[in-house]
C-alpha cells in the first residue's frame, strides 16, 4: 500500500501544479503539445523522403535538415524581438499561417529549390511562434516562483512534457499516414496547424498583463556583449546538435540494422514516452540536489554516453533486434540528457536577460544554437558519405557535448528579466 501511494505521488503533484496554473499558462503549454503533434507527424520521415523518393545525396539531405533547423532556431531572435515589440498573439497567429503554407508546399515539392523554400518557410514559422510562447512561459514561470508557487523549472518541465507528448503522438500519426504517401503526411500536419490557428485566434488574449512592450532597437548590443549568456547559448547549441541526430544519423543506423525505417517511429515514441512519464519526477529530484549548471553538466555527459554506446557497438555490425539495441540505448541516454539540459537552460535565461528583453534573449539562444546545428549537420552528413569506419561519426558526436562542458558559465545572481 505504501509503495502504491509513493508511485501515485508524482502524478498527484503534477496534477496539483497544473490545477494551480493560470489559464494563460495552461493555454501556452497545450499550444506546445499541438505544435509538436503537427510538426513531428512530418519531420521524422523527411530524411528518408529526400534521400530515397527525391534521390538527394547525403550531404544535401544533411544540409537541408540543418537549414530547416537554422531557419527555425537561427531566426528565433527575430521572432523573440517581434514578440517583445508587438506581443504574443500576432506573432503566434502569423507563424501558424506560415507553417500551414510550408507543409502544403513541401507535400507537393519535387525540385530542390522547392524543397529548400518549403523547408525555410516551415522553419521560419516556428521562429515566429515558438520564442513567443517559450518566452512568455518562462516569464510566467518566474512570476510563479516569486509568488511562492514552486520552482520555475517545474513549470518549464511541464512545457517539455507537453512538447514530448506531441512528439509521441506525431510520429505515430505520420507512420500511419505514410502508408498512403508523404504528401498525405504533410497535409495532415498542415491540418493540425489549421486547428491550432483557429483555437488561438479565439482564446489567446490581445494583451497579456505585466508584459510591457519595448522598442525594437537597443537590445542587440548589450546581448552581444553578454559573455555569460553567449557561453550558455554555445553549450545549448551542442545539446541541440546532438538532439538533431535523431533525424540524421539515427535513421541511417536504423535502416542498416533493420533493413527499413519502420522501427524509427517506435524509437521516437520511446523517447517521447520517457519524457512524458519521467520528466516531472526527474525535474523535482534535480531541483532538490543540483543547481542549473550541474544539471546541464550531467545532461551533456549522458548525451555523450549515448553516442559512445553506438560507437562501441558499431564495429560488430549487429542486425535485427540485437542491432537495434545500441540505437535504443542512444535514444534513452539522449532523452535522459535532454530532461536535464532543456529545462535548466530555459530556466537560466531569465537570470541573464536584460529587462523587458526576454523574448529577444530566448530567441537568441535558439539562433546561436541553430547556427551550430546548421554547420554541424552538414559536417555530419559529409562524415556519413566519406567512407570512414562506421564508428567515427558517432565518436565525433560523442566528443562534442564533452567539449561543451568548458563553455558553461558559473551561475551568479543577475537582474530579473522582464
TrEMBL record:
An annotated GO cellular component: plasma membrane
Residue intervals of the Major facilitator superfamily (MFS) profile domain: 24-416
SUPFAM superfamilies with a match to the protein in the record: MFS general substrate transporter (SSF103473)
CDD domains: MFS_MdtH_MDR_like
Major localization class: membrane
Alphabetical keyword list: Cell membrane, Membrane, Transmembrane, Transmembrane helix, Transport
Membrane topology (UniProt): Multi-pass membrane protein
Keyword Magnesium among UniProt keywords: no
Molecular function terms from GO: transmembrane transporter activity
Transcription regulation in keyword set: no
Classification via InterPro entries: MFS (IPR011701), MFS_dom (IPR020846), MFS_trans_sf (IPR036259), MFS_Transporters (IPR050171)
A Pfam match: MFS_1
Localization terms from the record: Cell membrane
Stretches that traverse the bilayer: 21-43, 88-108, 114-133, 154-176, 182-205, 226-244, 264-287, 299-318, 324-346, 358-379, 391-408
Official protein name in the record: MFS transporter
Organism this protein belongs to: Streptomyces ruber
Native organism taxonomy: Bacteria, Bacillati, Actinomycetota, Actinomycetes, Kitasatosporales
Amino acid at each position: 500500500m505504501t509503495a502504491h501511494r509513493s508511485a501515485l505521488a508524482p502524478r498527484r503533484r503534477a496534477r496539483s501544479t497544473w490545477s494551480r496554473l493560470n489559464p494563460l499558462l495552461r493555454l501556452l503549454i497545450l499550444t506546445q503539445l499541438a505544435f509538436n503533434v503537427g510538426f513531428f507527424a512530418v519531420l521524422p520521415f523527411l530524411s528518408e523522403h529526400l534521400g530515397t523518393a527525391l534521390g538527394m545525396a547525403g550531404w544535401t539531405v544533411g544540409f537541408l535538415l540543418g537549414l530547416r533547423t537554422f531557419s527555425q532556431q537561427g531566426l528565433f531572435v527575430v521572432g523573440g524581438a517581434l514578440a517583445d515589440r508587438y506581443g504574443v498573439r500576432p506573432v503566434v497567429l502569423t507563424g501558424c499561417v506560415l507553417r500551414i503554407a510550408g507543409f502544403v508546399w513541401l507535400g507537393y515539392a519535387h525540385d530542390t529549390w522547392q524543397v529548400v523554400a518549403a523547408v525555410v518557410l516551415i522553419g521560419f514559422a516556428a521562429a515566429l511562434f515558438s520564442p513567443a510562447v517559450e518566452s512568455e512561459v518562462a516569464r510566467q514561470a518566474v512570476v510563479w516562483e516569486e509568488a511562492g508557487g514552486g520552482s520555475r523549472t517545474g513549470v518549464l518541465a511541464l512545457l517539455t512534457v507537453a512538447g514530448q507528448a506531441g512528439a509521441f503522438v506525431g510520429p505515430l500519426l505520420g507512420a500511419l499516414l505514410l502508408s498512403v504517401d508523404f504528401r498525405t503526411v504533410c497535409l495532415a500536419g498542415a491540418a493540425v496547424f489549421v486547428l491550432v490557428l483557429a483555437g488561438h485566434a479565439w482564446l489567446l488574449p490581445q494583451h497579456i498583463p505585466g508584459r510591457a512592450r519595448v522598442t525594437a532597437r537597443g537590445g542587440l548590443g548589450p546581448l552581444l556583449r553578454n559573455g555569460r549568456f553567449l557561453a550558455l547559448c554555445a553549450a545549448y547549441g551542442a545539446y541541440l546538435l546532438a538532439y538533431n541526430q535523431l533525424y540524421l544519423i539515427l535513421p541511417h543506423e536504423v535502416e542498416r540494422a533493420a533493413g527499413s525505417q519502420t522501427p524509427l517511429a517506435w524509437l521516437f515514441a520511446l523517447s517521447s514516452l520517457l519524457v512524458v512519464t519521467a520528466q516531472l519526477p526527474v525535474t523535482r529530484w534535480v531541483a532538490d540536489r543540483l543547481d542549473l549548471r550541474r544539471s546541464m553538466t550531467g545532461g551533456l555527459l549522458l548525451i555523450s554516453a549515448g553516442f559512445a554506446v553506438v560507437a562501441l557497438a558499431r564495429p560488430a555490425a549487429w542486425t535485427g533486434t540485437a542491432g537495434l539495441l545500441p540505437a535504443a540505448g542512444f535514444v534513452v541516454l539522449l532523452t535522459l540528457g535532454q530532461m536535464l539540459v532543456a529545462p535548466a537552460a530555459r530556466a537560466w535565461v531569465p537570470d541573464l536577460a536584460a529587462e523587458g528583453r526576454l523574448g529577444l534573449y530566448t530567441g537568441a539562444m535558439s539562433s546561436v544554437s541553430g547556427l551550430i546545428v546548421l554547420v554541424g549537420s552538414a559536417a555530419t552528413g559529409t562524415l556519413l558519405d566519406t567512407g570512414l569506419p562506421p564508428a567515427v561519426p558517432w565518436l565525433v558526436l560523442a566528443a562534442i557535448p564533452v567539449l561543451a562542458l568548458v563553455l558553461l558559465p558559473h551561475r551568479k545572481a543577475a537582474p530579473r528579466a522582464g
